[in-house]
Amino acid sequence: PLVFHQFIRFVVLPINVLFAMLQLVRYPQEAHTFIWVAGTDVAYLLSRILLASVAFVGFLSYRQYAYGAILGFAVLNVLYQIAVFLELFFYACALASDMNALWYTLYTQGLWGSFITALIWAFILCVYYHKRRRLFGGKKQ
Q1: Which runs of consecutive H residues, i.e. helices, occur in the chain?
Q2: Residue from 65, 71, 75, 69 nearest 136 by CA
């Protein structure tokens, strides 16, 4: 049952840190298009790096903070998807002349798939680590 945990620890978390760092380095080159979302994106990338790193280090010795960091990491992804959707929604509302153009714009951005994926991934992580919280010094029920 810990194979999934090993996959998260040695594959998912390091890859997330690496990709977030690459996006953060590349971000200033791409930010000129949507300068109004720069704060959200930079905060998300920094938080993602921090939480994934803390979870990785905490998983090495099964510390309690690793449990909190991985759950925070899962929730952060869902909250970011909601924030991006709302930012794009309000931006599209300001530009769209009718609601059909608005929903088409939101649909073509692929936000629905990203949100559903983040939600499913967060659910899986939360259920998995909630059941194994005793590994991290959590209370027994």
Answers
A1: 3-7, 13-30, 38-60, 64-95, 99-108, 111-131
A2: 65
Interval 18-27: pLDDT, tens: 999 998 888 7
The dihedral built from the CA positions of residue 68, 73, 74 and 77, taken in this order, carries a sign that is positive
**C-alpha 5, offset from chain centre:** 18
Backbone CA torsion sign across 68, 71, 20, 46: negative
What's the whole-model pTM score? 0.81
Residue 10: how many other CB atoms lie within 10 Å: 12
The pLDDT value given to residue 50: 97
| pLDDT band for position 99 (cuts 50, 70, 90) | low
What contacts 51, CB < 8 A, 6 or more positions away? 69, 70, 72, 73, 76
